[in-house]
Design goal:
Helix content is about 20%, strand content about 20%. With about 425 residues, it is of the alpha/beta class. It folds into two domains: about 260 residues, 4-Layer Sandwich (Metallo-beta-lactamase, Chain A), CATH 3.60.15.10; about 140 residues, Metallo-hydrolase/oxidoreductase (Rossmann fold). InterPro entries: Metallo-B-lactamas, RibonucZ/Hydroxyglut_hydro, RNase_J_2. GO terms for molecular function: exonuclease activity; RNA binding.
Length: about 425
C-alpha cells in the first residue's frame, strides 16, 4: 500500500514513571490522545497544581493542540487538525486526573462504567484537576462509548474494548489508521476477575503494528518481592482470605478498607462475607450514584444525612464500635476508637503503600492502639510472566513498554522494541 500520509506516534509522558502516560497517534489531519493522567510524585511537595507547574515538573505532557486555550493561551490549530479525540482507559488518577485540562472542543471517550464513575468521584471537586473558569466540582463532558464498536475520528478508527485492572470498568484501545493497527493496554492484568476479557483483547489486537503496554511489574528489578506483588496471587484468593479471617476470629472486631474504584472487590466482599458488611456513608453514596447499588452503611459523628441512601440500611456507628462478631465494616476515621486487639485489613486502600509519605504514620497509629494490621494486596498490574504472555498474545511488530521505572527490561520476542524518550515522534515507514 502506497499512501501519501504516514502514521505518527508521539510519546509525551508516562514512559519511565509509574503512571501518567500521554501518547498521541496522528494520521494526516486526524489525531487522538491517550491517557489524561498525572504522574504521582508526592515527594515533590508542590506549592500548587497549576497547569504550568505540572508541565514544568513533567507530571503531565506538554501536548500541543489538545489543552484548553484558557490554560495555554494558544488556540487549537483547526487549520491543520480536522478531527481530534481523546481517550481514557480507566478512572485511576494517573490516567484521568488531567481530563478537565482538555479543550472542550475535543471529544473525550471512555468505557461506559468509567464515564459513569468519574463525575461521581469528582462531585466534591477533590478528584480531578479543575477546569479553567469552571466550579471546582465540574467534570467536562465525557462520551460513554459502546464497547467493541468502532469510533471514527477522521482517518483514524478507535475501538474501546473490555480489559481487566483493579479499577472497575477498565478498558483497552485498538487504533486503526489507513495503513496501521496499534493497541494500547492502559493498565492490564491476567489474574483479575476477567482474564477472558484480556484474552479477547489480545485476539482482537493480534498482529498489531505496535503494542503500547504498561510494564509496572518491572519497576523493582532488585527486589525479590516488591510491595506491589506481595500477598494473594489473584482476586479470588484475596476474597477467600478475607472470609477466612472472619471464620478464624468469631469474637473479634474486624474492620477493613479498600480503594474506592475497586468496585468489583467490594461487591465480592459483600457477597461472600459471613458477617454483614457495612460501608461508610460516603462509599455507599458513591456506589449508589455510580452503579445504582444499595448497601448497608454508617455515618460518622456529625456527617450530613445523604438523602439518596435508604434509611433502613443504616447501622449505628456506636453499634459498630462495640461489635465483635456481627459486622465487617469499613474503617475510614477514628482509628483510635477501634478496639484494642482488633483486626484491620488494608486492601489496596489509601494510603496506597510505602512510597506514599502518609503510609507509615498511618500504620504506626494503628499499631500504637494495639490494632493488628493485615495488608491484603492484589495488584492491578500484570506480573512479569503475564506481561510476556500478553505480548505473545498480541504478537506486535513493535513493542513499546511504558508506565514503568524500568521499561528496558521488557523484551519483544515477536519483533522490535522501542524505548522512546519524552516528546519523541515515531513515524511508521
Amino acid at each position: 500500500m502506497n499512501l501519501k500520509h504516514k502514521t505518527k506516534v508521539t510519546f509525551y509522558n508516562g514512559l519511565t514513571t509509574i503512571g501518567g502516560p500521554m501518547i498521541e497517534v496522528a494520521y494526516n489531519d486526524s489525531h487522538v490522545l491517550f491517557d489524561l493522567g498525572e504522574v504521582f510524585k508526592p515527594d515533590l511537595e508542590l506549592a500548587d497544581e497549576s497547569f504550568q507547574t505540572l508541565i514544568d515538573n513533567q507530571l503531565i505532557g506538554d501536548v500541543p493542540d489538545f489543552y484548553d486555550y484558557h490554560l495555554t493561551g494558544k488556540k487549537l490549530s483547526d487549520s491543520h487538525w480536522k478531527a481530534s479525540a481523546a481517550y481514557i482507559s480507566h478512572v485511576h488518577l494517573d490516567h484521568s486526573k488531567a481530563l478537565n485540562l482538555l479543550d472542550e472542543s475535543v471529544k473525550l471517550y471512555t468505557g461506559p462504567i468509567t464515564a459513569s464513575m468519574l463525575p461521581v468521584l469528582n462531585k466534591d471537586g477533590n478528584y480531578l484537576l479543575p477546569a479553567a473558569g469552571k466550579p471546582k466540582n465540574y467534570t467536562r463532558p465525557i462520551i460513554a462509548a459502546d464497547l467493541n464498536v468502532p469510533i471514527k475520528v477522521g482517518d483514524i478508527t478507535l475501538e474501546i474494548v473490555p480489559s481487566d485492572h483493579d479499577a472497575y470498568g477498565a478498558t483497552g484501545l485498538i487504533i486503526k489508521t489507513p495503513d496501521k493497527k496499534l493497541a494500547y493496554t492502559g493498565d492490564i492484568r491476567l489474574h483479575g476477575y476477567h482474564p477472558e476479557w484480556v484474552e479477547a483483547f489480545m485476539h482482537k489486537g493480534h498482529g498489531c503494528d505496535m503494542l503500547i503496554i504498561e510494564s509496572t511489574a518491572l519497576s523493582w528489578p532488585n527486589e525479590n518481592h516488591s510491595e506491589e506483588f506481595t500477598g494473594p496471587k489473584n482476586e479470588d484468593e484475596l476474597i477467600d482470605r478475607i472470609v477466612q479471617y472472619q471464620i478464624d476470629n468469631p469474637k473479634r472486631q474486624i474492620t477493613f478498607n479498600t480503594y474506592i474504584s475497586n468496585v468489583e472487590r467490594i461487591l465480592r466482599i459483600i457477597k461472600d462475607s459471613p458477617r454483614k458488611v457495612v460501608l461508610s456513608a460516603k462509599r455507599a453514596e458513591f456506589l449508589k450514584l455510580s452503579i445504582g447499588v444499595d448497601v448497608a452503611y454508617y455515618y460518622l459523628p456529625g456527617e450530613e444525612i445523604i438523602p439518596i441512601l435508604r434509611s433502613d440500611l443504616e447501622v449505628d456507628y456506636n453499634t459498630l464500635l462495640a461489635d465483635e462478631s456481627e459486622f465487617l465494616w469499613q474503617a475510614v476515621a477514628d482509628f483510635d476508637k477501634l478496639k484494642s486487639g482488633s483486626l484491620y485489613i488494608h486492601s489496596n486502600a489509601e494510603p496506597l503503600g510505602s512510597f506514599d509519605p502518609a503510609y507509615q504514620p498511618f500504620v504506626d497509629t494503628l499499631e500504637q492502639h494495639q490494632v493488628e494490621v493485615v495488608m491484603l494486596r492484589c495488584s492491578g498490574h500484570a506480573s512479569a510472566s503475564a506481561l510476556e504472555k500478553i505480548i505473545r498474545g498480541f504478537e506486535p511488530s513493535v513493542l513499546v513498554p511504558v508506565h514503568s521505572m524500568h521499561p528496558e527490561l521488557l523484551e519483544n520476542p515477536c519483533g522490535s522494541r522501542l524505548l522512546p524518550e519524552r516528546n519523541q515522534v515515531f513515524t511508521f515507514e
